[in-house]
Amino acid sequence: TSLANYLTFFAEPLYIRTFIRTAVMSVLATGITLIIAFPVSYYIAKIARGRLQQVLFLLCLIPFYVSELVRTFGWMILLRETGLVSNLLQWTGLADQPVEMLYNDAAIMVGLVYTSMLFMVVPLTTTLESLDDSVIEAGYDLGGNGLSVLREIIIPHAAPGIVSGSIVVFMLSLGNYLTPTMLGGKDSLWFTEMIYNQFIVRFNWELGAAFGFMLLILSSAIVWGVLKLTGQTLEKTMG
Fold it and tell me: For the chain, what is the largest distance between any 2 Cα atoms, rounded to a whole number of angstroms?
């Protein structure tokens, strides 16, 4: 791939804007996934017992028994103008006409979070299960409240799971093609769509390869930055 292809990327504002937008949306999807997955993982690891724990974990796995294409179609059926969510809003009186919830950034975010949830829950649950209950009890015995125990004991112990889950979810979101294409509108561009267009539509393999390399550099830089900020290492996080 010649240098001219990289210059083409930097010379076109649309490419740069889509590149930045994809990175920001992927970070946002990772954050939302973490916020939802953490209490779920804590409940599975520390509160649920026996069969309930197994059932909850199975519920997280069930959506992945079908392909991503089928799951995305499911969200399209739910969020479309004549879908279940729109009908429910009208039935409750929150909307007086059909509501189209597809083809926007919110729909993309829902799809990305749903697609990535398991990959955050698994490392978090595994890490939290290794936290001795007596350590949490000691935190309360020493005068700590729920917030301080969470901040001083639970989150530091779960840090490897948080980082590993965040890395996987971020990489999945950044490189996702199907979900943004099907749930996003014409203005909801994703960088992987541009890579696809260069390879498949325009047959400009050199520019497509340059775009792919730029995406690789971005993902590697953000992963490296997260590891440095959290004081984690790749071996400890993924090991």
Answer: 66
- In the block, tokens 């069930």 appear at 62
The C-alpha atoms of residue 29 and residue 22 are separated, in whole angstroms, by 10
pLDDT band at 235 (very low <50, low <70, confident <90, very high): low
What number is the average pLDDT over the span 105-122?
92
Q: How far apart are CA 149 and CA 232, in angstroms?
A: 21
Tell me the average pLDDT across 17-36.
Answer: 95
- Residue environment code for 66-98, b if the CB has 16+ CB neighbours within 10 A, otherwise e: eebeebbeebbebbbeebebbeebeeeeeeeee
Q: Say how far apart CA 197 and CA 18 lie, in whole Å.
A: 14
Instruction: Provide the CB-side half-sphere exposure for 91 (13 A, CA).
Output: 7
Per DSSP, 96 falls in state S
Nearest to 170, CA basis, from 106, 120, 104, 238: 120
Q: What is the pTM of this model?
A: 0.90
pLDDT confidence tier of residue 142, bands split at 50, 70 and 90: confident
The secondary structure of the chain in percent helix, strand, coil, rounded to multiples of 5, reads 80, 0, 20
Closest CA to 162 of 209, 217, 121: 121
Contact (Cβ atoms closer than 8 angstroms) between residue 227 and residue 163 = yes
**Distance separating alpha carbons of residues 218 and 38, to the nearest angstrom:** 26
Domains, the chain, in order of start with CATH, read 3-125+157-238 (1.10.3720.10)
**What pLDDT score was predicted for residue 234?**
66
End-to-end CA distance of the chain: 35
The residue ranges of DSSP E strands in the chain, in sequence order, are none
Mean pLDDT for the stretch of residues 37-57: 90
